[in-house]
Amino acid sequence: MDKSLQVWKALLNNTSKEDLSSLVNLLAKIEFVELYTSNICQLHCKHCIMGDIDPKQQPLSLDEWLRVIDQFLNLGVKNFHLAGKEPFLEKNTFEILSYLSKIKSNKDIRYGLITNGLALNSNNINLLEKYDVDYLDFSLDGMKTGHEYLRGKNTFNKTIKAIKLSLNVLGWRKTFVSSAVYKDNINEVLEMIKTSNEFGARQFFIQPMVPYGRAIQLHDKIIDWEEFKALIISCKIALENQFEKGIGIIVYLPYSFAKKAVEESFDPVIETIDRLSNNGSPVISIGKSKMKLRLGLIPSAYWQSVVVTHDGYYTGACEMRSVQNYDEISVGNVRNATVEGLYSESIKSISNLYEILASYEEWAKIHLESV
Ligand code: SF4
Description:
Layout: H1 3-12, H2 17-27, E1 32-36, H3 62-74, E2 79-83, H4 92-104, E3 110-115, H5 122-130, E4 135-139, H6 144-151, H7 156-169, E5 175-181, H8 189-198, E6 203-208, H9 225-241, E7 248-253, H10 255-263, H11 267-277, E8 283-286, E9 289-295, E10 305-308, E11 313-315, H12 326-329, E12 332-333, H13 339-348, H14 350-358, H15 360-369
Iron/sulfur cluster is lined by residues 41, 43-45, 48, 50, 84-86, 116.
């Protein structure tokens, strides 16, 4: 059974703190590492999760990054995600991808990047092909109006151009389009999916905009569960008959939404939980298309996912990078400790995770429902 679901079910059964900690310890394995290789970006998006947070140290050097990657590989990590701020503006990004491609020749690993697409050109896209990236994920928040409200004027067409370039060179299987959904773009999301599909995009990821970083200022634009649910239903209907070649949509439900969906037995969520409970795939087939729901029932920080910031801090999730004192809440810095040591430290402080889990209602309230 899916690990998060096991922990969630244990929580529902009022498992004691000790038993829950043992369970999390038993299941703990880093599945996903986000490397924040860059601290620069040409945009100033209104909802940027990293907002205006000051760096605490010099950026990691290339040698330091490669050492960190080796240490994660020794822990059995297979998934590396190069993220924020804008990875194409940092020259180390390509050196890191080159390094990962060499590892890939004899190890089963997967890696990709998320980008705003503005710096993508025929030279660097060819490098991505050469370094055999598994995916390139573009941030496109709706159509022109919804996208540019968040990301600034004249950004929409540039990102579309970059997506087309990626589709041409890397192909649709490696090209993803991701959207943060908020009040002003929720009615544009389906149109954006259809428009992108017309020029070849077939893989999409949607999630509600979250109130972290600069997006705290946008609290009146955050959507509620009813609005997001209506979008999921519209997408489902569209998948049934509107995409001849079939597309895939991954939908992320943060805790408060996932909880409500379970409480009201929202079909796709219940089906997903049933499938995961029976060790099945969470992918739901709809006509020729597919929908996959990612349920944020349990935070994955530290025991399943890790973030290394551009200046070396080891944290559990991107939300932690969105606060001014991210250095203080991190477990430590990869400059002063090994990844293995930091991992054990984070697992040792599992009581902290327990506190998060045990007071989950409160945690979710503070982080997801307070605005
Ligand atoms: S959201 Fe992404 S593209 Fe926008 S400012 Fe932040 S890092 Fe840059």
